[in-house]
């Protein structure tokens, strides 16, 4: 892996008469979609914020009016971090970025020499991980090539080579075992919406990631092997939407087609001794083992992995208990897989929507009447009766499915729910002025 550009095609030559056909799009900033998620996953692993398969929360989210959704509009409740990366789930990665820090991630991207990040980190906010920033295809390929090259080299080789030393002068120097776990996650073959690639990707082991920007303006695919990095962007040069394009179905096949023309080469080797620690990890939660975890795996982990949290879900009696909202969505999506997981019976509950501190809007219905806000709650006891109070005014009770549609006035409010055992939860939220005018 020399790190040099072998081939570069900046635009299509099929319609040279059209405006913009001679523009080198490979150097044009375009919305990144999901193509930066591998870098965040690697950074979070390096910090010990997560382990490769730590369960991430995948439930409805509302952060000051920002409501990220997964591409298929569904939720898994809890999903291993590596699977969230392979499936390119938006909600878990917004939560991951919130915990990692937008400013830290913005700085990391700049150190990866993504020069089109011109604005302040606060301007991008959490949308930074979902395409809120623009990147160039040539610089994106360079960043992932640096990642692969750095993993394959040792520190001494870099120190003793003037060209390599200059190349990696401002590089973030990711933990190599974190890089390896990222590449392994991206080498997963069986992914939703990309099954047509199974035959192609089984020929060689390639770490690959796709991305699609909002409005179907940009389709991305990046493929990484020890010998080559192949990046593809598809879309309209003038930035107009191209309905039907996606990273998976438009850019991805082109990327794999290019790889099929290249020498096969080797696979990424496992981390070298001294670049990792070995620790016992709970098979259910993906977190460090506790005395209550029955099924564990011994894994090679990044050097900071021992900073990570121990399993938070196994209890002293051996039961595996997720927070209510995570549990509710997980059982709804995979009822057969989690039928043997024991429930806690302490009557705990959690708001599914909205989150505490949310700023909400009330819209008008088609007939001009004022709409409402649907509040949702999860309770671990399926027989629970929930009593709802808005600003101390009784609103009604629910059983089985705990949803309540309310029409609060503009301003701050407190919603309190209480079950038949006297357990209660409160939620603070604000309704924007003029949101239903």
Description of the molecule:
The protein is an alpha+beta fold. The protein folds into 3 domains: 25-261, Beta-lactamase (3-Layer(aba) Sandwich); 277-307, no CATH class; 349-431, Immunoglobulin-like (Sandwich). The chain is 25% helix and 22% strand. The chain contains 12 helices and 17 strands. It has helices at 37-47, 81-86, 90-100, 102-111, 121-124, 137-152, 155-159, 162-167, 176-186, 198-201, 247-261, 324-333; strands spanning 30-31, 55-58, 77-80, 134-135, 207-212, 218-224, 229-235, 277-282, 296-301, 349-353, 358-360, 373-379, 385-390, 393-399, 402-406, 411-419, 424-431. The strands form 6 sheets. Strands 11-17-16-13-14 form a 5-stranded mixed β-sheet, with no helix packed on it. The chain is globular, with a radius of gyration of 24 Å. The N and C termini lie far apart (60 Å). Residues 343-347 have low confidence and may be disordered.
In short:
The chain has three domains: 25-261, DD-peptidase/beta-lactamase superfamily (Beta-lactamase); 277-307, no CATH class; 349-431, Immunoglobulin-like (Sandwich), CATH 2.60.40.10. Helices cover 25% and strands 22% of the residues.
* H/I helix tally: 12
For the record, what CATH class of the largest domain applies?
Alpha Beta
Distance between the termini: 60 Å
How would the global form be characterised?
Answer: globular
For the record, what is the CATH homologous superfamily label of the largest domain? DD-peptidase/beta-lactamase superfamily
The CATH architecture designation of the largest domain is 3-Layer(aba) Sandwich
- What is the overall pLDDT average? 86
Q: How many strands in all?
A: 17
Q: Write down the secondary-structure element order.
A: EHEEHHHHEHHHHHEEEHEEHEEEEEEEE
Question: In terms of per-residue confidence, which ranges show pLDDT below 50 for 5 or more consecutive residues?
Answer: 343-347
The count of domains is 3
Rg of Cα set? 24 Å
Write down the oligomeric state: single chain
CATH topology of the largest domain: Beta-lactamase
